[in-house]
Design a protein that fits this description.
4-stranded parallel sheet; alpha/beta; 9 strands; Rossmann fold; about 300 residues; 14 helices; Glutathione S-transferase Yfyf (Class Pi), Chain A, domain 2
């Protein structure tokens, strides 16, 4: 199976380990993510400036994928929402579709809507499936508590993203459970991290970040696990400027990095030490939490009740 890999603008420059870990994990299941050099920005920066200027870049990306007969795998939540928004709008606005295709025709491109857009979590959860993931594991995490923060754009608006339930998401929870880690229920899990306010209202941006760190700590999280690239930058970069001591830092661990370790991949391949909040001591601690997967048969035996003694 092969997808055109859409990383967006931030990840290739600032969080390259996110893409590399995702590619390494999916490669274990014979899924190839093709880096398409013709892709451009998804259009998100002009979302609130001009509707046509917002839709056009995503339509072009989709047309590029169509020309290659590939569906798109997306790793950035904002890009995912932008691409899905373009598909939704162009499916119902024939006039805008005609205008955009006139522009695309100058590059010998045409948008018809046949290319699918899939978040990499959906590929793991649906295309591969939880059973195949679990069967492939070499290790599972023991006593590892993580605070997942989904990010805003992947879940809402639900009628556009079609990713998961907006208020009770299950996909990420199912995937974390496969690794053996505990996906905590914590205050802030579905809320904004504040990244969108950076440079606009820095005080509120910091307050929202501190609120999330406090909520994750109160839930006894060992790591914060951002799904969104902007959330990652908040917790793995901005957090460093707020912490007074190293002990105040709540370290970041990306989901494909955790899953990759459970699949037996090395930390260098997964870029774990490239997370700015990570240390060699944390890596040793994390490695110590990995053990052989618990056999399902043993689990069932543990749950099976003993027959009641006869009177």
């Amino acid at each position: 199976m092969k997808y055109a890999f859409f990383q967006g603008c931030n990840i290739p420059v600032r969080i390259e380990q996110y893409a590399r870990a995702t590619q390494a994990v999916l490669h274990q299941f014979d899924i190839e993510l093709v880096e398409e050099r013709e892709f451009n920005c998804c259009g998100y920066p002009v979302r609130n400036v001009d509707e046509k200027s917002y839709i056009l870049p995503s339509a072009r990306n989709l047309a590029v994928a169509e020309k290659k007969n590939l569906d798109i795998a997306v790793i950035c939540n904002c890009c995912f929402a932008s691409l899905m928004k373009a598909k939704n709008v162009l499916a119902t606005n024939s006039q805008l579709l005609e205008e955009i295709n006139l522009i695309l025709a100058k590059e010998d491109l045409q948008y018809s809507g046949v290319a699918e857009v899939k978040h990499f979590l959906t590929i793991l959860h649906t295309d591969i499936g939880l059973k195949r993931l679990k069967d492939k594991l070499r290790y599972q995490a023991k006593d590892l508590k993580v605070a997942v923060i989904q990010g805003c754009h992947i879940l809402r608006p639900r009628e556009i993203t079609k990713f998961d339930h907006s208020f009770v998401p299950e996909i990420t929870n199912d995937l974390v459970q496969v690794t053996g880690a505990l996906n905590l229920d914590w205050h802030g899990k579905l809320e904004c991290c504040g990244a969108a306010l950076a440079g606009i209202n820095d005080s509120l941006c910091r307050d929202l970040l501190n609120e999330k760190i406090s909520g994750a700590r109160q839930a006894d999280a060992r790591f914060i696990m951002p799904i969104c690239a902007y959330c990652h930058l908040q917790f793995d970069t901005s957090q460093l400027h707020l912490a007074e001591t190293p002990e105040d830092i709540l370290p970041v661990l990306l989901f494909p990095q955790l899953l990759g370790l459970c699949l037996g991949l090395g930390e260098q391949e997964l870029g774990i030490m490239e997370n700015k909040t990570f240390t060699s001591e944390l890596l040793q601690s994390l490695s110590a939490m990995l053990g052989p997967p618990e056999d399902d048969t043993k689990k069932k035996k543990k749950k099976r009740k003993q027959p009641a003694a006869s009177s």
